[in-house]
Design a protein that fits this description.
alpha/beta; Lyase 2-enoyl-coa Hydratase, Chain  A, domain 2; 2-enoyl-CoA Hydratase, Chain A, domain 1; globular; 3-stranded mixed β-sheet
Length: 261
C-alpha cells in the first residue's frame, strides 16, 4: 500500500503528502524510507523551487505506527539502533534539502510528526491543531527528532515539552516561534498558496543560497572569518548570471527571467 502521494501542480512546485490516513499518517519503516527517497529524487530536478509537505486525513502525523512499535518491542539493541538510524537519516535528508520546504499542518502533530514539522523552513498550522512531544509518557525520549525540534522550538520550551509531554496548541506553537503562521482551517490552503507563490517569484539560486546562509550563520561568532565568508558569498552571487539578471531587471523595471521561464 502506498504511504506517500507525490504531486507536481507546476514544474516549480512539488507536494509530498503523507498518505496513511487510516493510521493518522503514523510512521513505519516504509513511510520513513519513502520520504527519504522522495526528497532525494525531487531535489535532483533542477526546475523545482519549492516542496510542500502535508498529510492526508484528519492528522498531519501521529508519530509511530502501533504495529511498528509492537515489532520494535522485540528488537535487540543493535536492531533498535539500526531502526532509529533510518529515522535519523530521513530527518537529516529533509533538514538538509537545498530547496525551501513548506509544512502544511492541518491536523494533530505528535512525536515524530513534530520532528517532520521542525525540518520545514516555513511552517503553517490550522487553528486548533495540537502538538505533543509524547515520548516520555512511554518511557522513551525524542532523541532522533531532538536536534531539529530544539532548534525550531527553542531550548527553554523544549525543556518543558520534552519533560512534561504536555500538549500545546497551534497558537502556543506560534507564540514560541515554532509555527510561523496560525490561520483558520478554511484559510490554510489560500495562505499556503501565497507563501509558495512568494518563494517561486524569487531567484531560485538566491533562495537556495539564503537557506544555506541561515544554517551556516546560526550560532557562529561574528568574527573576521565570518565577515570574510559573508563578503565572499555576496560577491559570488552578485557576479552570478542570476544575480546580474536580478539587478538588471530591477533597474530596467521588468520581470526577471526566472519569472517568465
Amino acid at each position: 500500500m502506498p504511504t506517500l502521494e507525490i504531486r507536481r501542480p507546476t514544474p516549480f512546485v512539488a507536494e509530498v503528502w503523507l498518505d496513511r490516513p487510516e493510521v493518522r499518517n503514523a510512521f513505519n519503516s516504509e513511510l520513513i524510507a519513502g520520504l527519504q527517497q522522495a526528497f532525494r529524487e525531487l531535489v535532483a530536478d533542477e526546475r523545482l523551487r519549492v516542496i510542500v509537505l502535508g498529510g492526508r486525513g484528519k492528522a498531519f502525523c501521529a508519530g509511530a505506527d502501533l504495529n511498528w512499535m509492537r515489532a520494535m518491542a522485540g528488537y535487540d539493541w543493535e536492531q533498535n539502533r539500526a531502526d532509529a538510524q533510518a529515522l535519523a537519516d530521513m530527518l537529516w535528508t529533509l533538514h538538509d534539502c537545498p530547496l525551501p520546504v513548506v509544512g502544511r499542518v492541518h491536523g494533530d502533530c505528535y512525536a515524530g510528526g513534530v520532528g517532520l514539522a521542525a525540518c520545514c523552513d516555513v511552517l503553517l498550522a490550522a487553528e486548533g491543531v495540537q502538538f505533543c512531544l509524547s515520548e516520555a509518557r512511554l518511557g522513551l525520549l525524542p532523541a532522533t527528532i531532538g536536534p531539529y525540534v530544539v532548534r525550531a522550538l527553542g531550548e527553554q520550551a523544549a525543556r518543558r515539552y520534552f519533560l512534561t509531554a504536555e500538549r500545546f496548541d497551534a497558537r502556543t506553537a506560534q507564540a514560541l516561534g515554532f509555527v510561523h503562521e496560525c490561520v483558520p482551517a478554511q484559510e490554510l490552503d489560500a495562505r499556503l498558496a501565497q507563501i509558495v507563490d512568494a518563494l517561486v517569484a524569487n531567484g531560485p539560486q538566491a533562495v537556495r543560497a539564503c537557506k544555506r546562509l541561515v544554517k551556516d550563520l546560526a550560532a557562529r561568532p561574528i568574527d573576521a572569518a565570518l565577515r570574510e565568508d559573508t563578503a565572499r558569498r555576496i560577491a559570488d552571487i552578485r557576479a552570478s548570471a542570476e544575480g546580474r539578471e536580478g539587478v538588471r531587471s530591477f533597474l530596467e523595471k521588468r520581470e526577471p527571467a526566472w519569472k517568465t521561464n
